[in-house]
Design brief:
Distance between the termini: 41 Å
Structural class: mainly alpha
Strand content: 5-15%
Order of helices and strands: HHHHEEHHHH
Largest sheet: 2 strands, antiparallel
Number of helices: 8
CATH topology of the largest domain: D-Maltodextrin-Binding Protein, domain 2
C-alpha cells in the first residue's frame, strides 16, 4: 500500500474500507513494490502518481500488468472524506497492453508559507498557466493537468491570496 503513513497508504486503507475488501496489505516503498511485483512476491500494488509512471512503464517491457478500475469507489470516498478524490481516466496505451479505464485521482498541492509574498505566488501561477504545455509531458496529457479547474481545486486548503488574484486576472 505504499510506505507507511504515505498518501498512497492512506488512500489504500480508505479505498479498501469503502469497497468492503479485506486485504493482506504490506507497506512497501514504490521501488520495492515494483520489484516485488516483477518477482511475483506480491499479487498487486497500489500507488498514487502520475501516468505513465516510468518505472511501471519499464516493468511492462518484461512483465505483463493489469490495472483495475477503481472509479466506482470515488462517490463513497467523496461522501466520507470530501472532494479530495476525483474520477479520472488512465488513457489507452499509457502502459503496454493496458486499455483505458477509470481510476481515482488525487490532487498534488504546491504548498507555501503564509509569508510568501503575493507577487511571488502570482508569478508561479502565471508560469503554471502560461507554460502548462511545457510542464506536462506529452505522454501524460489527459492524466496530469495544469488547467484552471485543477489548479484552483485545492479544497480544503485555501489558495494563497496572490495566487487567487492571479487566477482571477487570468480567467475572470
Amino acid at each position: 500500500l505504499g510506505a507507511g503513513g504515505s498518501g498512497a497508504a492512506q488512500l489504500g486503507e480508505r479505498l479498501f474500507a469503502k469497497a468492503g475488501v479485506a486485504v493482506d496489505a504490506r507497506h512497501l516503498l514504490f521501488d520495492d513494490a515494483v520489484r516485488a511485483l516483477a518477482g511475483r512476491r506480491i499479487d498487486a500494488m497500489l500507488w498514487s502518481g502520475g501516468v505513465p509512471t516510468p518505472k511501471l512503464a519499464d516493468l511492462t517491457r518484461t512483465t505483463p500488468i493489469a490495472l483495475l478500475p477503481l472509479d466506482s469507489v470515488v462517490p463513497a470516498l467523496r461522501a466520507a472524506y470530501g472532494p479530495v478524490y476525483d474520477q479520472v481516466q488512465v488513457p489507452d496505451g499509457a502502459y503496454r497492453g493496458v486499455g483505458a479505464l477509470g481510476t481515482i485521482g488525487v490532487a498534488n498541492l504546491l504548498v507555501c508559507s503564509p509569508a510568501l509574498p503575493d507577487d511571488v505566488a502570482a508569478a508561479v501561477v502565471r508560469l503554471l498557466v502560461e507554460r502548462a504545455t511545457a510542464l506536462v509531458p506529452a505522454e501524460a496529457v489527459g492524466t496530469q493537468f495544469l488547467d484552471v479547474r485543477t489548479l484552483i481545486g485545492t479544497q480544503p486548503v485555501p489558495l494563497q491570496p496572490g495566487a487567487a488574484a492571479a487566477y482571477r486576472a487570468l480567467h475572470g
